[in-house]
Specification:
Layout lengths: L2 H13 L1 H19 L4 H29 L9 H35 L18 H28 L10
Helix pairs in contact: 1-3, 2-3, 2-5, 3-4, 4-5
Length: about 170
């Protein structure tokens, strides 16, 4: 086994923490913007950490898939692993959808402003009718982060998946 292949199990744990923090920050900021105060800083703390969290989640998914490639297919923890993978991929798709809608709203707003003299149009968080589905989506992001993290923790701490024993 090559050194690079041996590193696969160690790359995934090193890549999951930033997406977790960034996605929870983004969801919290978005919910505060929608239901508390519409400060520009909360809007910024919604979209940019969401983008960075999605990119980080992409890396975590890739490293996770590489790490699980060496695991036995009939292992007793396979149902938990499958849930972990499913929630990670669902999180990736949901955040990707939110980012796509944010980008699409910006493109529509740009088309509505033929020149800079007109005031900017609404942002996705301010779009009428979007508050309910954005709230549900951001809450679902939080749930998916926690469920995926919980399952990942079960794999490591209960089953010892990809944990190497150090000799004294």
């Amino acid at each position: 086994m090559s050194y690079f292949t041996a590193m696969f199990p160690h790359l995934h744990p090193a890549t999951v923490h930033f997406p977790i923090a960034l996605l929870l920050l983004a969801a919290g900021a978005g919910l505060l913007y929608l239901h508390w105060r519409q400060h520009d800083v909360l809007r910024i703390l919604t979209w940019w950490p969401l983008l960075l969290g999605w990119l980080g989640n992409s890396v975590a998914i890739l490293t996770g898939l590489l790490a699980q490639s060496g695991l036995p297919p009939q292992a007793p923890y396979r149902p938990i692993l499958n849930w972990h993978v499913t929630t990670g991929l669902t999180l990736w798709a949901l955040v990707g959808f939110l980012l796509y809608r944010w980008w699409l709203q910006g493109k529509v707003a740009h088309r509505r402003r033929p020149h800079a003299a007109q005031p900017p149009t609404t942002e996705l968080l301010d779009t009428p009718g979007a508050r309910l589905w954005l709230t549900a989506s951001l809450l679902f992001v939080v749930v998916l982060v926690f469920v995926s993290g919980w399952n990942g923790g079960q794999l490591v701490y209960q089953w010892g998946v990809n944990v190497t024993q150090q000799s004294d």
